[in-house]
Amino acid sequence: MDDFIEDSYLDTAVGVEPISPRLDATSPNSAFFSINSDGSDEENDDWIDVKKTELPTNDNFMEELRSTINETDCDAGMIRKILAGRSLTPDADDVTELRKKIWPALLGVAKREAKEFTCEPSEDIKKFFEETDLPVGSINLATFFAQSKGLQPKNWIYLVVPLLQLDMTPSQQYTILHPIATKLTPLHEKSLHFASESILVLLQYHEPELSQKLSDLRVPLNAAFSPFLSSLFAVAKSQAIMSLWDGILQCNDPILPIFLIVVLLINSAEQLAEAKCTQDVVSQLTNCLQQMESDDIPDFIELAINYRDLSPRSHLEMRIMPLFTARPTSDCHESILCAEITASEALLSIAGDPSCLPFVLFDVRTPDAFNQCHLHSTMHLEESVDGDKLLAQLEHHIESLQMPPEETHVCLIGESKNDPTVISFVSQLLKKRRKYLSIINGGFEALQMHINSSESQLDPYQWLIEEKQTEPSKPTSKFFSSFSNFTSQVSSNIKSSDFGAKLKAGFEKTISEAETSLGLGKKNLNRPYRKDPPMFSIDDESEGSDNDEEQLNMEAFLHRKDIKGNWNATGPNNKKFILALSSSQMIICAPCADQKWAKIKARRPLSTITRITSKKKCPEIITFRYTDDTKDTFHLEEAGDATREIKRQVVAVLDALGQTGDAK
C-alpha cells in the first residue's frame, strides 16, 4: 500500500493546496476485503446510495442547530459539530436568543445559577466609560468584576460590550464574563506583557522577514497588542465581533487570539512598514478588524489554527498557555531569543510521534563535545562567521534527507541553557530569514538528563552515541592455560611409546575443561543460558509477522488534530477494525491484541470514493466503492454517524479540488 501524506487543511482560498493523492490507475485491483450479506457481489434495489444524501449547507445548518438545542439540552459537543467553525447567520431573527443559549454552553456555564449582585459604580470606571464612550448600561457589571478581581479600569472593560447585545440580566452577563476574562484573556499586567512579546517570537518563527522589518521600526509593538488581547478584540468595535466570538468560543483555545493577531500582522505587512508609533499599529489592526464581515470569520480563524498547528507544541504549552491561568509559571515570564522546545518533544519528534512537528535536529556544540556523546539522528553543524555558508550547510544536510529545506522545522542543540554558541547560530540564521527555527530548552544537558531519568523509561544506549573507549586486555582464559599445560606434557613425553594414547587423552581433557568453563558440559546441554530460554529450537513454533505494515499507538493516533472521527467496524470472519477519518483519507486500522497498538491496513484517499451504499434490510452494512473498481465493506454499529461524517469530508475534498461534478 502506498504511503500518503496527510493534510489537515483544505481551504484553497488561502493558497493551501490540499494533498489528496489518487491511486495509480495502472496498479492491479487489490481491494482490502469485500463481503456481501447475501453472497452477491452486485448492487441491486436493496442498496441505498448514502453519498447522494445532501449535506447541511450554510442555509439549513441554523435549522439543525435550533432543533439540536431543543432536543439535547444545549450540548456543547453537538453545537460544535453542527457549527463546524461557522458563525451564526447575523440576519437571523432569533440570532440573539440562540447566542444566549449557545455561548454559556460553549463556556461550560449553561447550568450555572446566576446570582444577583449589587454594587455602587466606581468613579474610576465611570471616568473610563466617559472617555471611551462605552454604553453606561454595563457600568455596574464592570465595577463588580473589577472589585472581585482587584483590577484597574483598562481595556478589559470592552469585554462587556458584546454581552450587552445579548439582552441578559447583569447576573447572567457576569456568568459569561467571568470564564471569558479568566480563561481566554491574560488578565494580569505581567502576563499581558509577555503574551504580547510571545506574538513577536511566533512571528519570527513563521515570518522572520516581516519580524525583522517590524523590529527595524523601533516601535514598541507589544504595547500595541495588549488592547486586543485583553478585550478579545472588542476594543476594535467591529461589526463582526459577535461572529468572531462565535468562532473563538467554539475553539475554546485560550492561545487562539495570539495567532489571530499573527494573521492580522501578516496581512497588514505593507501598511505596518510605514508605522511611526504604537498608535499607528493599533489603528491599522483596528481597521483590519472593522473591515471584516461575518463571512470572513471562518477563514480568519482557520488561518490562525493553521499557524498554531505549525508551531512547536511544547513552546506553546511551556511559554504561552500558562499566561492565561491564574498562576503563571516563572518560565513563561522570561524573555527568549527564539522559540524553544523541550527535550521530551525533541525525542518524540525523532520517534515519529504524530502529535509533534517533524523536527530536524542539528548539534552546534564543539566537534570534540559532539564526538564524545551526541543524540541519534542528529547532524553536526560547523560554526561559521559567514551566515550564507552556515545557511548553505544547513540546507545541504536537509536536502540529503530528501526534505524541502524551506519548509523543514529546524531545532538547534547547544551545550546548556543560554549557551553563547547556540545564540550565535540563531542570530546568524535569523539574519538570513531562516523560518521554522527553534532551540532545545536546556540544550544537550537537558536531553541527557531526560534520557537517563527513570521517568522517561528510555534506554540511553539506543538514544545516545558515545565515543568508544579502548578496552583493557583480558586475562588469558582457562582454555588456553590448559592447552599450554597440555603441550608441555606432550613435549615431555614425546619419546614415549604410548604417544598416540596420551595425545588423544590430552585433547579430550583439554576440550572437556574448555566445555566446562563455557557451561557446555553434558549436564548443562539442556539448561538455558543465564536462565534465559533458548532463542532457537528445532521444535519452536514461530508465527510470521507482517513487518511491512505500519504500526501506531492508537490513543496518540486517534487524538491527532487532523482526525475528524473514528468508528469500530467488523469485517469478514468477524475481524475487528477501526475506520479513522482524516481531512483527506479514510484510514483502515486493525487493532492488536493489547488494544493499544494497531496496524494500518489501508489508506483510502477520499477523492477516490465514488459511492457509499448500505443495505435496506441491514443499514449497518456499508460498502465503499473506489475509482479503481475496488471496494471495502464493513458492518458499522454507528453507520449513520460514520457515513454522514465521511460523506461530509468527501464533499469538502471534492469541492476543494473543484471536482464536485465527478462524484457519482
UniProtKB/TrEMBL annotation:
One of its GO terms (cellular component) is cytosol. Residues 528-549 are annotated as: Disordered. Residues 360-448 form the Rhodanese domain. It holds the Pfam family TBC1D23_C. Residues 538-549 have a biased composition (Acidic residues). GO terms for biological process: retrograde transport, endosome to Golgi; vesicle tethering to Golgi. Residues 526-630 form the TBC1 domain. PANTHER family: TBC1 DOMAIN FAMILY MEMBER 23, TBC1 DOMAIN FAMILY MEMBER 23-RELATED. InterPro entries: Rhodanese-like_dom, Rhodanese-like_dom_sf, TBC1D23, TBC1D23_C. This is Uncharacterized protein. It comes from Oikopleura dioica (Tunicate).
